[in-house]
Amino acid sequence: MNQIYNSAPECPVLVIGASGVDLIGKLKGEIRQNASNPARIRSSFGGTARNVAENLARLGQAVKLITVIGEDHAGNELLNQLDEAGVDTCEVLRTPDHATGSYVGVVKANGVIHFAMDDMHAMTALTPGYLKERSDLFKEASMVYVDTNLSSETLRTTMSLARRAKVPVCADPTSTTLANRLRPYLNRLHLITPNSNEAAIFCEQPFEAARSHQAIKVAKFLVGQGVDMVLIALAEFGVVYASSETSGHIPALRTKILDPTGSGDALNATVIFALLNGLSLDEAVRLGVSAASLTLRHSGSVVPNLSLELLYDQLVI
Predict the structure, then answer these.
(1) Residue 56 in contact with residue 63, Cβ under 8 Å?
(2) Global pTM value
(3) Which domains does the chain have, with CATH numbers?
């Protein structure tokens, strides 16, 4: 697996998927059912694809985002923030039929997600036809990143356009509910980035995230299914990865978790950035773990001062 990327400065990563507003409540103590719980509540912009796009831009990577937002105030603010971060939003679709997407998460006092809800109905407006009219974007891209908030038909078109353009695809299964949409395309993926629960769906058997050797076995299984590179996030147990040439486990950095939202997106974006800049998979994952750790300590989905220098300052040796 010696992928040569189209990594000229003018060749952006084409990011396709969800954007929205995050509302996160972090409990101050144990949750009490059927009662109002004291918490610290914050809002920020989120969405898997949007987070990845912003992280890439913060690192200095050219990036174009295709997503859907409503014709509302939240959509206006989201676009303004992305523009300020350096993301190309020219192809963002605005719809009058749905509000800008939203995500509500409840986080325990120890920083672990208790439960979450999302409303990404706006993504139904992203049709195969919309992407086909923009097929040249695939030809110009260094890589395509996609989350599975796309409909099955739009995902199929994304994969088809990427294959015709001969551009590598990175896919995030996004949730256990949506992960199966990627099953038909495993042998077309350059990189897949599930968490442990999503990875278990593809191998159809559970495994213990605490046992890294089991997770590496699952990663190698997915390589055997045709994926070039596999990255499995194991939460507090770190990350495992595999390709036909290498595999390994990077433990998580010990850190107090302020907010878990967006840490996986920071990991994925940083790995993509590192690969496009010629780093090995092993080195890319180490940088990715640093990015995830920084994001865990930040009250928001993306660290606003993210940089390569900042990542190397706390690189896992």
Answers:
(1) yes
(2) 0.94
(3) 13-313 (3.40.1190.20)
